[in-house]
Write a structure and sequence with these properties.
The protein is built from 14 helices and 12 strands. By secondary structure, the chain is of the alpha/beta class. Helix 1 runs antiparallel to helix 8, helix 4 runs antiparallel to helix 5 and helix 4 packs antiparallel against helix 8. It is elongated and about 105 Å long.
């Protein structure tokens, strides 16, 4: 039912047109089979009209298949791109923890190959409809020739379909395991592309990755896929053998029990042989259906729903984006990561402190102390497990409140990618304000903003991080949070950042929260929050 809801939603009238045209084409081809049978006994003077009828039926078949295929090709492309857009909008509106639990590799597979599975299924429907119509036409002709033989054939074909479906279900269970292994394989491929430099530098690491991880995981995917396809081929060939066995029964078994004229027997054999290939081809839709259902199930498991309409983001600023910021207060706020791989979850907090407008606050602590988790709580990317967060004195109790909290923050986290365009700003505004920021960030000799597009992103890591910061600054939010941003900068620019850029940003009314290890610059902060083991151990002045 879910699958047909998707087809109806994205296929619409094209799906109906394809089904009608496919049925017409299939019945035309079945009528051709009947005409061929009749032509064997037609007198010579009737050959001309039979030839004209043949041409008419052939044209009906050709045009019917053309309309069916093209209608669903258009629908499949529409399904692929609109469904991918809808799912991406849902993912970008989903809670961060939900996306983190799903994982980047699985999201890539869902938005890529799983959506493509649904489009391929839709593309394959016309052939199945045509083949099914041909088979139905042949069986109708059988029923007209001999009802007892028709009943025998229906029972025989039903048994063949059952013998096909049982192993096919087993094949789909293996296919689901292959899809899970493929998610892991995509994650490894992503690591290889992102870690090219470290892999190129070290032969042992490169060999260990390729031979010890990427290769074996690919082997698991290959083995599951091979087993799934083998069972599918076995089921397909078994069903085909049973269909051929049906022809053998018509030749050698039924004549012993049913007395039929030679012309009738010839027609029955012709119908059975003519229906064999369409029956076989129509069965191909079953594994495609199962794979499409697996794709839909995987979307639901990731918290994405292909049936939910997700409208585009409205134009203009988000609610609260241009609002004032006076104070953000945390009162006994805690957060806990779910247990994973039989390990207890990591807990952070309780956190109790306030950040006031215009402050420069440094957050410090060792790796794994909870700094980035605290940053996500401050930004509204994580909801607290307990305690409460107050924005300008008002408690944040729901997702709408967290949206307003997020609208006050611009942030740069480690690993944030650099896009080739400035996002969220009109071209003229981006070019004017961005040009000034390029000069402030000492990049104007390297990069030019043409509208919203950077002239180049082929820069050093530190310079690329400056362009990411530029995008955050262009949002002009009242609070700027930078997570280990300065760690990628050279010593000279790091000094310039703390001594020049940070004070200037405060002078423009920004509140700054900097996660850093640069202890030599702690005296630039109004306060330093120190974390250890997920807990706040120092909330003193710098």
């Amino acid at each position: 039912m879910k699958l047909w809801r998707i087809l109806a939603r994205y296929g619409g009238w094209r799906l109906l047109a394809a089904i009608v045209a496919g049925l017409g084409a299939g019945l035309a081809l079945a009528a051709l089979m009947r005409l061929i049978h009749r032509a064997l006994t037609l007198p010579a003077d009737a050959a001309g009209s039979a030839a004209l009828e043949f041409v008419g039926l052939l044209l009906a078949y050709l045009f019917g298949t053309l309309i069916a295929q093209q209608s669903l090709n258009d629908a499949a492309e529409r399904l692929q791109w609109e469904l991918r857009l809808r799912l991406l909008r849902q993912a970008l509106a989903a809670p961060l923890r939900q996306l983190e639990r799903t994982g980047f590799p699985r999201l890539m597979t869902l938005l890529g190959s799983d959506v493509r599975q649904l489009a391929d299924y839709l593309c394959g429907l016309p052939d199945s409809v045509v083949n099914l119509a041909i088979a139905v036409g042949c069986f109708v002709y059988m029923a007209w020739l001999s009802p007892p033989v028709f009943v025998f054939n229906v029972v025989f074909i039903a048994l063949a379909a059952a013998c096909y479906l049982v192993p096919e279900r087993a094949a789909q269970r293996i296919y689901r395991r292959a899809a899970t292994a493929w998610d892991k394989h995509i994650g490894q491929l992503t690591y290889a592309l992102q870690g090219l430099r470290s892999l190129l530098l070290s032969r042992p690491r490169r060999r260990d990755f390729v031979e010890g991880h990427f290769g074996p995981t690919g082997g698991v995917v290959r083995e599951f896929t091979r087993r799934s396809r083998f069972i599918h081929v076995l089921a397909e060939r078994g069903a085909e053998a049973m269909v051929l066995g049906n022809v053998a029964c018509l030749l050698f078994v039924l004549p012993r029990f049913v007395d039929l004229p030679i012309a009738t027997t010839t027609g029955l054999l012709l119908a059975a042989i003519f229906a064999r290939q369409p029956l076989k081809d129509s069965l191909d839709i079953l594994p495609r259906t199962q794979r499409a259902r697996v794709a839909i199930d995987r979307m639901h498991e990731a918290g994405l729903d292909p049936f939910v309409e997700t409208p585009p983001e409205p134009l203009g600023p988000a609610p609260g984006e241009n609002g004032e910021f006076r104070e953000l207060a945390l009162e006994q706020v805690t957060f806990r990561y779910e247990p994973d791989h039989e390990q207890s979850g990591f807990a952070c907090g309780p956190f109790t402190f306030r950040i006031r407008a215009g402050e420069i606050v440094f957050v410090v602590g060792g790796n794994g102390s909870g700094k980035t988790t605290l940053a996500k709580l401050l930004c509204g990317l994580y909801p607290p497990e307990s305690g409460r967060i107050l924005l300008d004195g008002q408690p944040i109790t729901d997702e709408a409140g967290r949206a307003g909290q997020r609208a006050r923050f611009a942030a740069v986290f480690p690993g944030d990618p650099l896009f080739e365009h400035v996002l969220g700003r009109a071209p003229a505004e981006a070019e004017q304000r961005g040009g000034a920021l390029l000069r402030e960030l000492r990049l104007d000799h390297k990069v030019v903003l043409r509208g919203t597009e950077f002239s180049t992103t082929d820069l050093s890591q530190g310079q690329r991080r400056r362009l990411v910061l530029l995008g955050a600054l262009l949002e002009e939010r009242p609070v700027l949070l930078l997570d280990e941003w300065a760690a990628d900068q050279d010593p000279e620019f790091r000094i310039f950042f703390y001594d020049q850029i940070v004070p200037e940003l405060r002078a423009r009314g920004r509140t700054l929260i900097l996660i850093t290890h640069d202890d030599r610059y702690f005296n630039r902060a109004d306060r330093v929050l120190k974390l250890e083991g997920g807990a706040l151990v120092d909330n003193g002045a710098a």
